[in-house]
């Protein structure tokens, strides 16, 4: 009863509300997309997972700047709804939907083939789509579904579109990772669903670490091409990425998130910053925090020898035999 009395006390309620307000005001970084005057007319951008959450707001921003935007989505129904919304809000009719299931390497290849046949340029690629909390599932390629969706699918997509991006340079690749990559581990047997702990976000954390490692190695390989590659942390964001967790976890996350976490629109800012800001032109192989500041990633993500090995293994796993 003592704790109940404390929690119900007006002073406690007022201080909690004040703290929540302060945190909400501090969630925004110093860079404001709406204050950025960069236009993208004549530019083509691809955003994966653009039907909801962070991805939709990234695509919305690009469309407002006049870009030709390709929404790369798995669900046709949800992708079509996002397409309609973005066109209506921006007045940009040059926004299009292309279906892709990043957990399927064949689907990624089919998407890339169609894209390369119909598009003449690609200036921005945002690898945003991701899942968290999936139970153990194996794809027909023999890969863990979380690793396929979060890392190997985007890795293959980037590889297949790379030559076009080089011809379109200057161009930018942005991979949405997470601060959780610092809790990740590297074990290459994980790709095949072996030695994985599926509790909570442990698999997700591992995939996000591979995102940063391979993005850094890709940036090294792209030196001198005019194509940059960076990874970003969007912040702790209330999105549908939690949909595979238990109801209790989702409710708790949503309740706390209402007061303290970023909205999808706020979570999109660091990715937009990397993709369009004049300040980030030419910057490559870096990791941006959710406030758009440059920060060091985890020590494993800075291991050059590990990066080469990781990249080469991913190349072999995604190559068509």
TrEMBL record:
Pfam families: adh_short (PF00106). GO terms for molecular function: oxidoreductase activity. It comes from the Eukaryota. Keywords: Oxidoreductase. InterPro entries: NAD(P)-bd_dom_sf, SDR_fam. PANTHER family: PHOSPHATIDYLINOSITOL-GLYCAN BIOSYNTHESIS CLASS F PROTEIN-RELATED, RETINOL DEHYDROGENASE 11-LIKE. Belongs to the short-chain dehydrogenases/reductases (SDR) family. This is Retinol dehydrogenase 12-like protein.
């Amino acid at each position: 009863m003592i704790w109940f009395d404390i929690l119900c006390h007006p002073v406690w309620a007022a201080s909690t509300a004040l703290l929540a307000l302060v945190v909400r005001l501090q969630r925004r970084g110093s860079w404001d997309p709406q204050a950025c005057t960069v236009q993208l007319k004549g530019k083509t951008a691809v955003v994966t997972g653009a039907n909801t959450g962070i991805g939709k707001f990234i695509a919305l921003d690009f469309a407002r700047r006049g870009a030709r935007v390709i929404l790369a989505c798995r669900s046709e129904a949800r992708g079509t709804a996002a397409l309609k919304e973005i066109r209506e809000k921006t007045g940009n009719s040059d926004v299009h939907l292309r279906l892709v299931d990043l957990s399927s390497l064949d689907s990624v290849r089919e998407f890339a083939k169609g894209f390369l046949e119909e598009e003449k340029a690609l200036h921005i690629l945002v690898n945003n789509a991701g899942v968290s909390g999936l139970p153990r599932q194996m794809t027909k390629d023999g890969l863990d579904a979380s690793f396929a969706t979060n890392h190997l699918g985007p890795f293959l997509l980037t590889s297949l579109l790379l030559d076009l991006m080089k011809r379109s340079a200057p161009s930018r690749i942005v991979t949405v990772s997470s601060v959780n990559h610092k809790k990740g581990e590297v074990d290459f047997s994980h790709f095949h669903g072996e030695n994985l702990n599926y509790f909570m976000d442990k698999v997700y954390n591992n995939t996000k670490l591979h995102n940063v490692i391979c993005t850094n190695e890709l940036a090294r390989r792209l030196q001198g091409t005019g194509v940059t590659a960076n990874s970003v942390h969007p912040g702790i964001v209330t999105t549908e990425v939690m949909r595979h967790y238990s109801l209790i976890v989702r409710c708790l996350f949503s309740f706390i998130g209402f007061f303290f976490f970023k909205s999808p629109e706020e979570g999109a800012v660091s990715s937009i910053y990397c993709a369009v800001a004049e300040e980030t032109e030419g910057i490559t192989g870096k990791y941006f925090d959710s406030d758009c500041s440059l920060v060091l990633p985890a020590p494993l993500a800075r291991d050059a020898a590990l990066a080469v090995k990781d990249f080469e293994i991913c190349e072999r796993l995604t190559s068509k035999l």
